[in-house]
Specification:
It is built from four helices and nine strands. By secondary structure, it is an alpha+beta fold. The termini are far apart. The model has no long low-confidence stretch (mean pLDDT 93).
């Protein structure tokens, strides 16, 4: 076991890389076999390139978890982890970050630091984006929605979790 740069998450849970007795990275094996998704958490992203590369072959074959992912942004109907893909229908910059609506159904939120990192990608309406993370039901959380606010929100926390197509 190799502790992460951030040894604990905000809930006090241990963050570490687990190695199998033969020296293979457990997360890499799970991702490669289609039993998990690659993620980068906080500053613990040193192995992100390795995990995302391991995911690519299973993803291309559409095996296991990738049989149902990514889901269309317009089909999001519940909170929880998801890999979503949709067309950009609106972008709204705020002081806190950037909101990108996909298919007029789900909003991606990129905090200002991340929005600055991806600013040079020149996204436009109609372009496909893919994102992964935890979808939040704003209607359930807030009780009502503001005009133009999408019910479903996915906060993108790492550049690794966002791809343009």
């Amino acid at each position: 076991m190799l502790p992460g740069v951030e040894p604990r998450d905000r809930y006090g849970r241990l963050l570490a890389h687990l190695y199998l007795p033969d020296g293979r990275l457990a997360a890499e094996e799970l991702v490669r076999s289609g039993l998990g998704f690659a993620l980068a958490v906080g500053r613990n992203n040193g192995l992100a390139d390795c995990l995302f590369a391991a995911e690519s072959e299973t993803r291309l074959k559409r095996e296991r978890l990738w049989r149902q992912s990514p889901i269309a942004a317009a089909d999001v109907s519940r909170a929880g982890f998801a890999v979503v893909r949709g067309r950009v229908t609106r972008m709204t910059a705020t002081r806190r970050g950037l909101y990108v609506d996909l298919d007029d159904h789900l909003a991606l939120f990129l905090p200002q630091v991340l929005a600055n990192e991806v600013r040079g990608q020149n996204w436009r309406k109609g372009q496909f984006l893919e994102a992964r993370g935890w979808v939040i039901d704003r209607l359930r959380r807030q009780g009502r929605l503001s005009v133009g606010q999408q019910r479903w929100l996915l906060k993108v926390t790492q550049k690794y979790h966002l791809q343009s197509h």
